[in-house]
């Protein structure tokens, strides 16, 4: 089959590596040292909700799991494009490691239940002393990260995104194809 794929110019899609999310705490240290951005304690997971009882039950189970034992509050919202966002807000005292663990748990639960193809992305928010925000976005289907820096409305700070990518490129698998750095305007938690 690989010969036919090569003959037709098709490549095998990259496999998501959810364990790459665990590199975020290291990238956060680098990002703070290089550009002054610190974690806001907010992360989110975007997915296309499936119809049916199985998916609704899974969504309730994931929310209950995260809310248990003093976990971060979980908020569910929908965007204009039909994606559901689970937004996790943790205290900055608990650190980004706990937030990353929770985001990983959401992604893993959806993937293990067979809803991996429904996952779009996960993001972790950062802010600096000037009030600028940037998100490190994990593209599930590509297994890579990219920065997104909104300016308000439908504008983004491309220069800041490139600066952030250069600063943390050694810590995270960065998306090399910049045309895939999709804007996530109005993403909950950003």
Describe the structure.
This protein is of the alpha+beta class and 190 residues long. The chain has a single domain, classed as Alpha-Beta Plaits. The chain has five helices and eight strands, in the order ααβαββαβββββα. Strands 2-3-1-4-5-6 form a six-stranded antiparallel beta sheet. Strands 7-8 form a two-stranded antiparallel ribbon. The longest helix has 21 residues. The protein is globular and about 45 Å long. The mean pLDDT is 86.
List the helices and strands and how they pair.
Blueprint: H1 2-7, H2 24-35, E1 38-47, H3 53-67, E2 74-78, E3 84-89, H4 95-115, E4 119-127, E5 133-139, E6 144-148, E7 150-152, E8 155-156, H5 158-168
Antiparallel strand pairs: 1-3, 1-4, 2-3, 4-5, 5-6, 7-8
Low-confidence stretches: none
> Number of domains in the coordinates?
1
The total count of helices amounts to: 5
Global structural class? alpha+beta
Helix-strand topology string: HHEHEEHEEEEEH
Shape: globular
Structure at a glance:
The protein has 190 residues and is α+β, with helices and mostly antiparallel strands.
List its salient traits.
single chain; alpha+beta; Alpha-Beta Plaits; 34% helix; 6-stranded antiparallel β-sheet; 190 residues; PspAB-like
